[in-house]
Amino acid sequence: MLGLGIIGWIIIGGLAGWIASKFMGTDAQQGILLNIVVGVVGGLLGGWILTLFGVDVEGAGLIFSFLTCLGGATILLFLVKLVTGRRAGV
């Protein structure tokens, strides 16, 4: 992901955040900016979790980076829903 720069982070993060919000049922409450933020923060969270398990996330490729962002964004949205007490469709 390092070779893509900030534009790559925004694109990958936006797509991952949008797909995660669809999966978690929060897309109606989120706009494009929040999807990007959720995806980028999810990528950082996912990368941190993977490094805890000894997975080398640097230089793993575009698809691995996207999946890391997607997984992290899904976990992030789950935790937000858990803390705020919101359910899908409410």
Care to give the gist of this entry?
Helix content is 71%, strand content 0%. It contains three helices and no strands. Pfam families: Transgly_assoc.
Structural commentary:
With 90 residues, the chain is mainly α. The chain has one domain. Helix content is 71%, strand content 0%. The model has no long low-confidence stretch (mean pLDDT 82). Belongs to the UPF0410 family. This is GlsB/YeaQ/YmgE family stress response membrane protein.
- Described by the principal axes of the CA atoms, the overall outline is globular
Largest sheet: none
Percent of residues in helical segments? over 70%
Number of separate strands: 0
What portion of the residues fall into strands of 2 or more residues?
Answer: under 5%
What is the quaternary state of this protein? Answer: single chain
Radius of gyration: 13 Å
Low-confidence sequence ranges:
none
Number of domains: 1
Task: Give the tags.
3 helices, globular, single chain, mainly alpha, 90 residues
Question: How do the helices and strands line up, and which of them pair or pack?
Answer:
Blueprint: H1 5-24, H2 32-52, H3 62-84
Helix pairs in contact: 1-2, 1-3, 2-3
Subcellular location: Cell membrane
Membrane topology: Multi-pass membrane protein
Keywords: Cell membrane, Membrane, Transmembrane, Transmembrane helix
